[in-house]
Amino acid sequence: MTDVQPSYAQARRVRAVREAGDGLAGLAKTIPLVCRLPAEADVAAMTRAVTAFVARHEALRHRFAHRDGIVSVRSVPVAEVPCVATAVPGGDEQAMGHVRAEVDRPFDVLGWPLLRAGLVRSERPLLYLSMDHLVADAWSVSVAMRDLRELYDAAVAGRPPDLPDPGGYLAYSASQRRRFADGPALDAQVADLQRLLAGRPLHPPFPVGVARWDLTHGRYARLKLLNPAQAGAFARRCREEKSTVFMGVLAALGLALKEVSGRHEAGVLVATHNRDDLDTSHAVGWYANMLPLYFPVTDVDGFAATLRNVRANLLAVFEHHELPLARILQRLPDDQQHGVSCFVSFTDDRDPGPARARAWRRVPMAPAYRAGYGLWVSLNDGGLTAEVASPRAPVGESRLAALESALAEVLTEAAG
User: Fold this and answer.
1) E-only strand ranges, 244-340
2) Is the dihedral of CA 188, 193, 197, 203 positive or negative?
3) How much is the pTM?
4) Terminus-to-terminus CA distance in the chain, angstroms?
5) Which domains does the chain have, with CATH numbers?
6) Which of 9, 51, 265, 326 is the most exposed place for a label (fewest CB within 10 A)?
């Protein structure tokens, strides 16, 4: 099989990891799915389900090669991908600790598969799936849960699975490379983005002064930001301001960052899923992109005014949502690139599905994230919650906790 080119983001990540050498752990980016199952699982059937899941998605059945600075991908015949069953002594805390360690464990980016799965035996068994960010993004987790549940049920029942066509990731990568090849069109987009940045870094620096970031170990926290009634009131407040809940969360975060850092401009990286057609909506892969967003934080009429700033600036930067961040990095000077940033993602996870869908209960778990302060916000049946992942900060943990407390207070006040 002839080697083909990966997406811009994949190529950049492979190069970065290979050049890091012993710094691999600091660059680990894994995307986890963790579910509580209603009963003890059939391990052989789950292995068949995981293997079928890998075979089904093009992004998962390829491996990466790196030679002379060139990154390529090549198809791999799908062999059995085991789902390893483990008994963990102790209670739920020990079981979750084992899962956290397993999903954080870095992958060899030139190895295959860039995925591992396991079952932890307990009163309500835990299923975990960890995928390297090279082959998956946050949207992929919901796709994985739907696919694995159906593939497992089909394996147990001995019937064909009923799933939609997942599309092809390599076609997406090839299309992206054609669209953003060197030329006048790319020059115009980069120039427009530079105008929006106005000399600011492409990776907005995290404004909360925290010393001694430890890139090899993660800091994780789960935040209960709003209860269901408050979340409903907050969503209505955002609609009244002609904005989305995501915009409201960003405005609240900006006010919290100002309270902790004293700065009147917030800068964050925001996620865009880039799945605007049926093929990509059913696919596992790295389609998501990140965009730099800067906005003023206003003292007078704080939340409403800051929300208006967020809406205006976010709509402007979203005009570039398909322009790969990895491609921009090749075009901007080093002084517009920065290390530790604040990254924000938002999903609406309210569950309208049937009881069968709820039988596999997803356990919130942040990805392994070492590039900066990561905030994964979810609007769900329990209200508004967030998973936090960042490098550890042995000097400054209290400042991160203060930021998270301030965020909850701003959201509560905005919800009325």
Assistant:
1) 265-272, 289-296
2) negative
3) 0.91
4) 60
5) 8-170 (3.30.559.10), 182-415 (3.30.559.30)
6) 265
Question: Distance between CA atoms of 53 and 150, rounded to whole angstroms?
Answer: 10
Distance of CA 149 to the CA centre of its chain: 21
Cα 340 to Cα 391: distance, rounded to the nearest angstrom: 9
Please, is 90 exposed, middle or buried when counting C-beta atoms within 10 Å of its C-beta (0-12, 13-18, 19+)? exposed
Phi-psi region of 383 (alpha: psi -120 to 50; beta: other; left: phi over 0): left
Residue type, 174: A
Place of tokens 């899923």: 273
- Report the C-alpha gap between 34 and 40 in whole angstroms: 15
Residue with tokens 């964050």: 268
Identify the DSSP state of 58.
Answer: G
- What is residue 69's predicted lDDT score, i.e. its pLDDT? 84
How would you label 59-69 residue by residue, b for 16+ Cβ within 10 Å and e otherwise? bbbbbbebeee
Which of 222, 211, 36, 238 is CA-nearest to residue 121? Answer: 36
- Calculate the alpha carbon distances from 406 to 85, 225, 253, 368, 401 in Å: 41, 10, 8, 24, 9
Which residues of the chain, if any, have pLDDT below 50?
1, 336-337
* Nearest residue to 373 (alpha-carbon basis) of 235, 277, 256: 256
Q: What is the pLDDT of residues 88-107, one digit of tens each?
A: 988 888 999 999 999 999 99
**Which pLDDT score, from 0 to 100, does residue 14 have?**
92
Quick one: pLDDT at residue 120?
A: 95
